[in-house]
Automatic annotation (TrEMBL):
Domain CBS: 167-225
Alphabetized GO MF terms: IMP dehydrogenase activity
Obligatory cofactor(s): K(+)
Lineage summary: Bacteria, Bacillati, Bacillota, Bacilli, Bacillales
PROSITE patterns: CBS (PS51371), IMP_DH_GMP_RED (PS00487)
Name the record gives this protein: IMP dehydrogenase
Length: 500
């Protein structure tokens, strides 16, 4: 006989947080949103932690290299979408990893025999205004000079002019020697008013470039998520079909964390994928999912997953529940899995973070998800609205919107996402093609959301996420109390009404 869950499947909108005593220490400025993203043993420090509990979804319409940089700059992580060729995804990871670092391997290089036309074409292709001139045009060749925008004038110089005739030659460069520390490099930059400092070996070969803008950006973004080399931490989505080809390419590109992207992760295909990664890449972390219950969580954890994603059918563009009748209310799924995670930790001493993926409509739902046990949340619609998402900004009627489509839609053509073991192609859609209201920049909107979360945590008497998970008091709400919670029994003012 089938197993029946007679308790209703609950959503975030059916709960509210009940305030605890707000002590004088509970001030938003004292709140830490730092949270682990990969498993760790009791008493140890996780290999990776987020400075804010946000991840952008593994979606074509959300997470590319630009979103990866923008979100890491704010302290979160993007998982660059996998429904593209291996080469293009690896290149996105490579771009995001090299966007900012303390010591940067030069990616724009020419030889003295090249021309101004070559410089301009390289700048157009890469966006880099600084070009290293080496003996063989390689990033590790003998450094002969540097070209920046100050070395030429397009209005006066011929496009056929040789680079060797206008570059700043090595003899006139201020440079650092191999083994210099980042602090010492930044001191040279400031002392000599430089924008870029090359670092060279004793033989004169270029090793790295250090940029002033990287130092400035770090001071402007104190919560940015960096690895040991001061590069942004970047994630990427994979599937259970071509992982033996895709994973090595992503690892070579520098990816930090992988996640298997699937509408239903409780499958043997995910187990095989996890075991392949763990057997071949010791240091690579991999999340798995999505699941909605204790059994699914334990299956993937025992397979070796470093974190687990929770949620089926709760995304704003996901119609899995409608099409297949599969899924569970996000709150119910999260509560059960969080309990299983805590029980597993007590029994083994290994803490496996969980990510709540889907079901978030309002900002306060994020705080609820954290209070219910999520270590971080993954969102698609939220991030699709911003300038940094990869989709087009359009005007529909009198409003600006951005395109937003699901990975289960025909537009995405992401058949690899579905662990069916059958032939390639989508027999039916599990996502829709849509628009979301345009909201502006990520940083401005994310800042408001974070402030709401911190303020609510203070109302709950907590200044860390673990405190919130231990101490939060959560109540079910009735349909009428939901109505009561919004503006009611008043005539709202319209912005276009003016006084005489």
């Amino acid at each position: 006989m089938a197993h029946f869950y007679m308790e209703p499947s609950r959503t975030f909108s059916e709960f509210l947080l009940v305030p605890n005593l707000t002590t004088k220490n509970c001030n938003p400025s004292n709140v830490s949103l730092k949270t682990p993203i990969v498993k760790f043993k009791k008493g140890e420090t996780p290999a990776y932690s987020l400075n804010i509990p946000f991840a952008s979804a593994v979606m074509q319409a959300v997470s590319d290299d630009r979103m990866a940089v923008a979100l890491a700059r704010s302290g979160g992580i993007s998982f660059i979408f996998g429904s593209q060729t291996v080469e293009s995804q690896a290149e996105m990871v490579r771009k995001a990893k090299s966007y900012k670092a303390g010591f940067v391997v030069s990616r724009s290089n020419l030889m003295p025999s090249h021309t101004l036309k070559d410089v301009l074409e390289l700048k157009e292709r890469t966006g880099h205004s600084t070009v290293a001139i080496t003996s063989d045009g390689s990033p590790k060749g003998k450094l002969l000079g540097i070209v920046t925008g100050r070395d030429y004038r397009i209005s006066r110089d011929s496009l056929s002019k040789s680079v060797g005739d206008f570059m700043t030659p090595f003899a006139k460069l201020i440079y650092g020697k191999s083994g210099i520390t980042l602090s010492e490099a930044n001191d040279l930059i400031w002392d000599h008013k430089l924008n870029c400092l090359p670092v060279v070996s004793d033989e004169g070969n270029l090793e790295y470039l250090v940029f002033r803008k990287d130092y400035d950006e770090h001071k402007e973004n104190p919560t940015e998520l960096l690895d040991a080399n001061k590069s942004y931490i970047v994630g990427a989505g994979i599937n259970t079909k071509d992982y033996t080809e895709r994973v090595p390419a992503l690892v070579a590109a520098g990816v930090d964390v992988l996640v298997i992207d699937s509408s239903d992760g409780y499958s043997e295909w995910q187990k095989d994928t996890i075991e392949y990664v763990k057997s071949n890449f010791d240091d690579v972390k991999i999340g798995a999912g999505n699941v909605v219950d204790r059994e699914g969580f334990l299956y993937l954890v025992e397979a070796g997953a470093d974190f687990i994603k929770i949620g089926i059918g709760g995304g704003s563009i996901c119609i899995t529940r409608e099409q297949k009748g599969i899924g569970r209310g996000q709150a119910s799924a999260l509560i059960e899995v969080a309990a299983a995670r805590d029980e597993y930790y007590e029994q083994t001493g290994i803490y496996v973070p969980i990510c709540s993926d889907g079901g978030i409509v309002h900002d306060y739902h994020i705080t609820l998800a954290l209070a219910m046990g999520a270590d971080f949340v993954m969102m698609g619609r939220y991030f699709a609205r911003f300038d940094e998402s990869p989709t087009r900004k359009l005007k529909v009627g009198n409003n600006f919107v951005k395109e937003f489509w699901g990975e289960g839609s025909n537009r995405a053509r992401n058949w690899e996402r579905y662990d069916t073991g059958g032939k390639a192609g989508l027999m039916f859609e599990e996502g829709v093609d849509s628009y979301v209201p345009y909201a502006g920049s990520l940083q401005e909107n994310l800042g408001k959301t974070i402030h709401k979360i911190k303020s609510t945590m203070c109302n709950c008497g907590s200044i860390t996420i673990p405190e919130l998970q231990r101490n939060a008091r959560i109540t079910l709400v009735s349909a009428t109390s939901i109505v009561e919670g919004g503006a009611h029994d008043v005539i709202l003012k319209e912005n276009n009404i003016t006084g005489e």
